[in-house]
């Protein structure tokens, strides 16, 4: 029966062991006694090193909490960190069995010696980390002391914004025990020197990598923590880079507008002012460091200079286009303009415009009598060829052969074209001759003695001659023989030298060969 009772009580015993934890039995009296015993003779004014022939080893572990801010212009980085320090204090050890199995005790940090950790590359102060905070330390029975404190620290970090906004920055945090050399205290990096268990990401910067190591720097033991962050480029690409590229593309498009519309200057000036306003809006978003300078900033400067040059060129070309053709060009502009191979495009010359058909006054003066004589020689050749064409035409016309009608039409077309060219050549020759004569008379102050012939469309009065009715060719092939006789008589007279009379004679009409049919 006793065995059966024990079997039935076994499950209850197992449940009791699972749900109840055997705790240490230390009481307030035990902890008070422990505190009194270890701190009665404890001295916190000097290093708690058991062997002063060697350096006191302090193990450091850094907890990176957040990257608060990174300033490229001031080259500073603000980080929130926590630091855990562990060392051995020879005067703070006890036997746990004597104090109710108490293995550790928690006291204020002012009750024991603590190392003063300072951030060497700080941009604010060189005060110890956690100073002014009420921090507690944990002391274990074997003399191990652990303290954890932290703060938001600002450190110097050299920025490289050459590839902004696609840049990455690498920064260092250097910690030392202030005022104590490496022969007395040796900072040792923990097996996991940088802990990211409490890290919170930043919206502008993403953490790429971290590392920590212990080095000797200028005779001091130094813990160096290195981290690399990469910028999020989306915002700067949309707000800064894309508008800059758009303005640089819009600038040269002003030359696609017609120069006589007057919109070139307005559009180029509007683009320049718009980009200037855009720069004032985004100037705080672009780092203005000089070593090295950002490629995006260089592109923005080149774009605004390029836009200003386009405005100047647009104004200059518009002034050339609308200028008076009579005044002479400045000698300086003329010299440099003659050296430019694309000067015609720069001057915006219109090949088919009416202004180009006007012979410049200075060019006419340079032509002089030599050009007039050459043109007269051309006129004589044209008269001779025209006479030969008349003979061929009359022979063909007299044959009255139906098969020769196409040839008659061809001769009619050629003859009419020659008449037109003859009238144009005579008109140019007479204009040049009258101009030269006018210049000579004006130099001799005899303008009032000159009498200009009165030009009518169909009639003309000549000095020493009576009114003469010019023969008019109506375009009918039946009237051509009589007109030919009148034309020959007309060409021998002084009246034949008048271009306006020639124009009135033909009225730009061609021979109408179909009337005879």
UniProtKB/TrEMBL annotation:
InterPro entries: Neur_chan_lig-bd, Neur_chan_lig-bd_sf, Neur_channel, Neuro-gated_channel_TM_sf, Neuro_actylchol_rec, Neurotrans-gated_channel_TM. Pfam families: Neur_chan_LBD, Neur_chan_memb. Residues 33-232 form the Neurotransmitter-gated ion-channel ligand-binding domain. Residues 439-449 have a biased composition (Basic and acidic residues). CDD domains: LGIC_ECD_cation (cd18989), LGIC_TM_cation (cd19051). It comes from the Eukaryota. It is a multi-pass membrane protein. The keyword Ribosomal protein does not apply. It is found in: Membrane. Residues 242-444 form the Neurotransmitter-gated ion-channel transmembrane domain. The chain crosses the membrane at residues 234-258, 265-286, 298-321. GO terms for cellular component: membrane. Keywords: Membrane, Signal, Transmembrane, Transmembrane helix. Residues 439-459 are annotated as: Disordered. This is Uncharacterized protein.
């Amino acid at each position: 029966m006793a065995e059966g009772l024990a079997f039935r009580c076994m499950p209850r015993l197992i449940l009791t062991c699972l749900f109840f934890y055997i705790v240490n039995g230390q009481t307030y009296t035990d902890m008070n006694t422990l505190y009194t015993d270890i701190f009665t003779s404890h001295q916190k004014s000097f290093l708690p090193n058991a062997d002063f022939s060697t350096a006191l080893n302090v193990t450091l572990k850094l907890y990176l909490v957040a990257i608060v801010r990174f300033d490229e212009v001031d080259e500073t980085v603000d980080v929130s960190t926590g630091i855990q320090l562990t060392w051995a204090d020879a005067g703070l050890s006890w036997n746990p069995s004597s104090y109710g199995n108490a293995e550790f005790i928690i006291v204020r940090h002012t009750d024991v010696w603590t190392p003063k950790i300072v951030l060497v590359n700080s941009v604010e102060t060189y005060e110890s980390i956690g100073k002014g905070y009420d921090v507690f330390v944990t002391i274990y029975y074997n003399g191990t002391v652990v303290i954890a404190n932290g703060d938001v620290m600002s450190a110097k970090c050299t920025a490289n914004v050459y590839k902004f906004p696609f840049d990455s920055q690498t920064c260092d945090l250097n910690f030392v025990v202030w005022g104590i050399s490496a022969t007395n205290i040796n900072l040792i990096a923990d097996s996991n020197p940088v802990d990211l268990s409490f890290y919170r990401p930043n919206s502008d910067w993403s953490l790429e990598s971290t590392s920590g190591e212990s080095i000797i720097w200028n005779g001091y033991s130094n813990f160096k923590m290195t981290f690399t962050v990469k910028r999020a480029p989306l915002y700067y690409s949309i707000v800064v880079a894309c508008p800059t590229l758009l303005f640089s593309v819009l600038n040269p498009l002003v030359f696609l507008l017609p120069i006589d519309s007057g919109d070139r200057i307005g559009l180029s000036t509007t683009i320049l002012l718009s980009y200037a306003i855009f720069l004032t809006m985004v100037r705080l978003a672009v780092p203005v460091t000089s070593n090295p300078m950002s490629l995006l900033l260089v592109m923005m400067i080149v774009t605004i200079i390029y836009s200003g040059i386009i405005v100047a060129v647009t104004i200059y070309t518009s002034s050339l286009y609308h200028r008076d053709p009579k005044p002479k060009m400045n000698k300086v502009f003329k010299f440099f303009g003659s050296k430019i191979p694309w000067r015609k495009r720069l001057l915006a010359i219109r090949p088919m415009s009416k202004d180009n058909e006007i012979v410049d006054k200075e060019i006419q003066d340079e032509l002089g009598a030599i050009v007039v004589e050459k043109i007269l020689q051309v006129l004589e050749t044209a008269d001779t060829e025209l006479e030969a064409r008349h003979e061929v035409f009359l022979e063909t016309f007299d044959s009255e052969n139906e098969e020769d009608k196409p040839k008659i039409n061809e001769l009619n077309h050629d003859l009419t074209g020659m008449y037109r060219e003859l009238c144009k050549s005579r008109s140019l020759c007479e204009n040049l001759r009258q101009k030269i004569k006018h210049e000579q008379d004006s130099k001799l102050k005899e303008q009032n003695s000159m009498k200009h012939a009165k030009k009518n469309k169909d009639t003309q009065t000549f000095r020493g001659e009576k009114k003469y009715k010019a023969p008019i060719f109506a375009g009918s092939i039946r009237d051509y023989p009589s007109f030919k006789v009148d034309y020959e008589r007309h060409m021998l007279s002084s009246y034949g030298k008048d271009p306006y009379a020639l124009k009135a004679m033909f009225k730009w009409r061609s021979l109408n060969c179909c009337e005879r049919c």
